[in-house]
Design a protein that fits this description.
- The protein has 257 residues and is an alpha/beta fold.
- The chain is built from eleven helices and ten strands.
- Strand 8, helix 8 and strand 9 form a beta-alpha-beta unit.
- Helix 3 runs parallel beside helix 11 (237-249).
- The radius of gyration is 17 Å and the shape is globular.
- 45% of the residues are buried.
Amino acid sequence: MISGKERRLRRLLGTDRRTLLVAVDHAVTTGGVGGLSRMRSVLSDVVAGGADGVVVHRGSAANSMPVQRGTAMIVHLSGNTQLSPGSELKTRVCEPETAAALGADAVSVHVTFGGGHQEDRAALTDLGRVAASCDQLGLPLMVMTYVRSEGDDDQRGQQIIHASRVAAELGADIVKSAHPGRENLAELVASVEVPVVLAGGEVEAGWDDYVASAKDAIGRGIAGLCVGRRVFGSPDPADTVARLSALVHGEAPARAA
């Protein structure tokens, strides 16, 4: 019997088991900066560009996401703001049941490791509860993993792999991870038995460098990308999405944006 999770995951992952996800959940953290003040326009462009899925908060899901067939909707359940310190430590701001009522194809949560013993335990407890609800509802769960680290690049890479493995062990169907470093990509893929997508990261790196890094990661088994600022901060989000989709799915070379 085919489960609801399997059906919904098919909307997120192509026949090649790869995916391009665009995250616009930053608005809760940073406000309407970098293009997010025009959320409805950005989401229309993301759909027009052919993204496999978009990550939104419940407000944008209800008010700004186009009703269409091509781009899956992932409702983000975690939030915090830069109006106070420690914005990377998130709390639950939406329930899986609410996301399902909004028509979500999946939900996502943000887990930061290294915030402290109490904070880490609370995050793990909440992740377990969300995963159990998602199993009951047949909703795929994406876990966005972040690590507070003061170690060198190799230590950070190993911590990223560990965090991603934790997410998969506790119920993630897709893991969003920071880039662990080129030398650690194969270990990340081998260690996590669900699809791993890489966060877009900062946009200071030029387009050509980003494309080269992303193509290398996908060639090493990474399942795709989950990008935000590089899309909604670009002059032409639809074109940027189309280029990134081509990169992820190997349809055509991505030209400079």
